Amino acid sequence: MAFRDVLDIEVDAGNGGDGSMSFHRAKYLEKGGPDGGHGGRGGSIILRAIEGVESLERLVGRRKFKAQNGAYGEGRLRQGSDGEDTYIDVPVGTTAFDRDSGRVIADLVRVGQEKVIARGGFGGRGNSTFVSSTRQAPRFAELGTPGEKRRVRLELRLIADVGLVGYPNAGKSSLLAALSRANPAIADYPFTTLSPILGVVESAGGEERFTMADIPGIIEGASEGKGLGLEFLRHISRTRLLVYVLDVTRDPVEELRALQAELRAYDPSLLESVACVALNKVELVDADITAMVEDELAGFGLPVLPVSARTGQGLPELRGALFALLPDRELWAQTHALEIEPEEVREEPLTITFREGEPERGKTAPERIWDVEGGGFEFRINRFSRHIEDAAEYLSGLFKRQGLYKALKKAGAREGDTVEIGVFRFEYFDDEEERG
């Protein structure tokens, strides 16, 4: 299966079911009371991290995900069933971004971790809810709200304990094969490792282990997206320990300087990671040259371990050093999880504007109209759009309790003026409560 670490999808949560407008009917009961039940909640879209999946490839071919709508409410106070949630199984290490805002909406770093990325709509209330001392038979019910829709980008940031950092043909694949049970394809050409390869490294006694990732070789300009650079850097950002694999036969000092420059350009915090240097291919040079290079690399402040992936020289020492240097998993996870900002609940500010309309029939003065926008009032009206005339009295009272009448009065509204909120029109009145 091909490796895929970036995938764009669209998610559509289920709509909430409408509330029921119903009245109880029985053989010997001519006029029963309202008994409309509530609508069910719409299903949500949920990301779930699972084991045994190392690529987003399994989702290719399906780019749109829709959750089930909530069922409508029914008479006899029967509530509609909730819509079934839709789960999208992804590899551990998957981060989800809202493609429109760019913000992180999910970061799954543990098996079984779940995150709602599109929330289902709320069910509408049945007419039984709106009974009051002055409203014994409400002939309106509430509509359900739409589910959230989102365009989402999934990025797999491979979670490995140790990441091998190096230029193409530095010997990373050979080193991984020598230290672990992985069997990467090894050949002598640039970008030998086209997909991240994981191996498991065990301690000498076999009681401890960690995962090691051989990730595509880096090139100059990787932080700008050249070559496989961004793919490399995205995956290396999740490793607890970095191993710079350098070829002693080239210019290891300059290569290490360039590698760190690319990491710094992508994310300066990567240089704060625990790291060491594996000086590879020492079987090809004299011991004096190896010692001289070690001294030159000492200026970077990192442990330097000369090794030969081909002959096995220095591998036991490297293995022991990696177990000694590896940070605690839980402590590392607490400090490196991506921060998810809480969703902002944006409600447009209330705006009230005055305009003159055409004179009403039989009158010479123009109609005085107040247009109301924002404040959440149109949203509330839309939830009663099927029964807007029957719900007019309820909505008028609701808006008064929520301070709209006071705001209209402050703006200069007079008794008998027309108020428009979307498609809803009603007459403003200044009752005793408002005067007081």
Explain briefly what this protein structure is.
The protein is an alpha/beta fold and 436 residues long. The protein has ten helices and 18 strands. A six-stranded mixed beta sheet has the order 10-11-9-12-13-14, with helices on both faces. The chain has a five-stranded mixed beta sheet with strand order 3-1-8-5-6, with no helix packed on it.
Commentary on this structure:
- This protein is an alpha/beta fold.
- The chain has three domains: 1-156, Spo0b-associated Gtp-binding Protein, Chain: A; 162-336, Rossmann fold; 351-435, GTP-binding protein OBG, C-terminal domain (GMP Synthetase, Chain A, domain 3).
- The protein has helices at 172-179, 229-236, 252-266, 287-297, 315-325, 329-336, 377-382, 392-401, 404-411, 432-435; strands spanning 6-12, 45-50, 64-66, 86-91, 94-98, 104-107, 114-118, 149-156, 162-165, 197-202, 209-214, 241-247, 274-280, 304-306, 351-356, 368-373, 418-421, 424-427.
- The strands form four sheets. The protein has a six-stranded mixed β-sheet with strand order 10-11-9-12-13-14, sandwiched between helices. A five-stranded mixed β-sheet has the order 3-1-8-5-6, with no helix packed on it. A four-stranded mixed β-sheet has the order 15-16-17-18.
- A hairpin with a 6-residue loop joins strand 10 and strand 11 (209-214).
- The chain is elongated.
- Keywords: Cytoplasm, GTP-binding, Hydrolase, Magnesium, Metal-binding, Nucleotide-binding.
